[in-house]
Amino acid sequence: MANEPLHYDVLIVGTGNAACTAALSALEKNVTVGLLEKAPQQDRGGNSALTGHMRFVFGGIDDLRPLVKNTSEAELQGLIDRLPRRTVEDSWDEVMSVTSGQSDPDLLQVHVTESSNTMHWLAEKGQDWVPATGMQALGDNILIMNGGGYGMQQRYYAALDRGGAKIHYQTAAIELIQENGRVVGVYAITPTGVRKFTAGAVVLACGSFEASPELRARYLGSGWDTVRIRGVPYNTGEGLLMAMDIGAMSHGSWTTCHASPQDINVPEYTVPSSFAMSNGDSTDRYVYPYSIMVNTNGERFVDEGEDTRGRTYAKMGRSILAQPGGVAFQILDAKARRMNLYPSNYAGATGAKSNTLEGLAEELGINSENFVKTVTEFNAAIQPGEFNPNRHRVDGKGTAGITPRKSNYALSIEEGPFEGWAVRCGMTFCFGGLKIDAQTAQVQHVAGWGIPGLYTAGEMVGGLWVGNYASGSGMMAGATFGRIAGTNAALFAKS
Ligand SMILES: Cc1cc2nc3c(=O)[nH]c(=O)nc-3n(C[C@H](O)[C@H](O)[C@H](O)COP(=O)(O)OP(=O)(O)OC[C@H]3O[C@@H](n4cnc5c(N)ncnc54)[C@H](O)[C@@H]3O)c2cc1C
Asked: How many domains is the chain partitioned into structurally?
């Protein structure tokens, strides 16, 4: 009968990275696993299907070898020459640095100590990576998923299929079901009505609220309601709301989020099926560390070179959103072309080119007088030193005597033709989420105990990121806590 409740030992909401890792680890415990996905099948996978790389701890070439297939020793050596290692201590310090010391230490400890194990576990489950080349080589991470996040998700679905997990599409979870305080299932809405799913344990892995204008306004504040989102339209916060409805504790920073510079013409949202067709040619506009960014008044407003790109891009969106009209322009001169500083996706970027600064200002609609003054003062403020566009280490070539300072990668803008790229804020995901026990991923109740039968992972976990983030961390943390959540949900369901 169509409306009869369906039962799984472990019921997982979502089909992104966190959900799939939870499902795969639950299957290891010989339980039945069902997944609910709001999207239709062709758009399963959430934001995870739009990603490229993961930030993990490794000690050298031996740690990389099991993760890659069909990659020569010479290629691997080339990667190690770029970034010889990333230690647990490096990773801890980095997250504490970008979050101004505000990351939850219990969560961070698990994140940094388990990332390497998680990568090798993923490889055992059929995942593989390839050297980051071309545009991806411009980031902080030296490996990318084979086929990007889209490819990774397809491998997850094949593994889940082999393991006997069942996915229900166009099935949006709307309410948790409890008996005596224990979570025993979920009500979900489908095109043909409400469906009841019962379970031994539930894992919520259905993303955050970035796709809900109403929740963005409520938690992130003015201006965020009308912002464009980089990812899927499905992550509208039900998971968080339904958990908090039964007393789950909120955690972390609900007023900050991941938001980066995007082409002014970035679409309202992106779904996995259209992303797969785009050859990964994203609207990311990440040349800014080598540029100056100005607003329509022709004024700089941020330290574009505060740190490497991977440690600043997630907070740059907020700075751009605060400018008049929420618009900014990345300005570079002819040297940038000669030095090959542009990521390849700038071929499709929205911008203008002119032999003069005044001409560029006119083309872009910037206050020309202020703009020329800004550029002149910037050029004069550049300190001696060698410009080095190294993505893993800042070059120390900064400015003095201007506000805001540019701390690194200060390259003069004096040689025409000049180019300017129009950018806006694109929001990626929210930093606020639920409080979990770091060892089990069990959701914590406001009264101070774990909610029996309820686990969460991925974007829904609050506390790791505050105000900023380091690139590739979302997928890494999602897989680590997804694995933990699936194991513990399965053990609970069997208990
Ligand atoms: C364009 C883009 C590029 C990115 N690149 C990177 C990168 O290279 N590296 C990195 O680490 N991070 C990257 N991120 C961030 C990364 O995508 C997230 O950290 C990660 O995907 C979160 O995984 P998740 O499983 O929690 O959520 P998601 O992958 O978003 O999955 C959530 C799932 O839940 C479903 N869902 C939502 N509500 C419901 C409901 N009520 N019922 C049922 N299903 C529901 C959604 O449809 C979706 O399938 C990127 C994000 C974007 C948008």
From this structure: 2
| Mean pLDDT of the 396-407 span | 98
Is the residue at 1 inside a domain?
no
Query: Is the pLDDT reported for residue 146 higher than 90?
Result: yes
Q: At what angle do helices 105-124 and 88-98 cross, to 10 degrees?
A: 130
Q: Is residue 124 part of a domain?
A: yes
CB-CB contact of 316 with 468 (8 Å): no
Residue of 126, 137, 118, 125 lying closest to 58 (CA atoms): 118
235 CA distance to ligand 1 middle (Å): 8
Inform me whether the pLDDT recorded for 138 exceeds 70: no
Are residue 37 and residue 93 in the same domain, yes or no? yes
**Closest of 183, 56, 123 to residue 453, by C-alpha:** 183
- DSSP per residue, 385-454: S-----SSS-----B-SSSS---S------SSSEEEEEEEEEEEEES-EE-B-TTT-EEEBTTSSEEEEE
Q: Which structural domain, as residue segments, surrounds residue 125?
A: 6-256+431-494
Do residues 296 and 332 share a domain?
Answer: yes
Mean pLDDT of 120-129: 98
Per-residue pLDDT tens over the stretch 318-348: 999 999 999 999 999 999 999 999 998 999 9
In order of 249, 267, 442, 476, the CA distances from 174 in angstroms are 18, 27, 20, 27
At residue 219, what is the residue type?
Y
Residue 330 CB less than 6 A away from ligand 1: no
13 lines ligand 1 (CB under 6 A): yes
Q: What is the pLDDT of residue 135?
A: 59
pLDDT of residue 213: 98
Q: Calculate how far, in angstroms, residue 419's C-alpha sits from the geometric centre of ligand 1.
A: 34
Whether this model's pTM surpasses 0.85: yes
- Average pLDDT of the chain, as a whole number: 96
Q: From the CA of 480, how far away is ligand 1's center (Å)?
A: 15
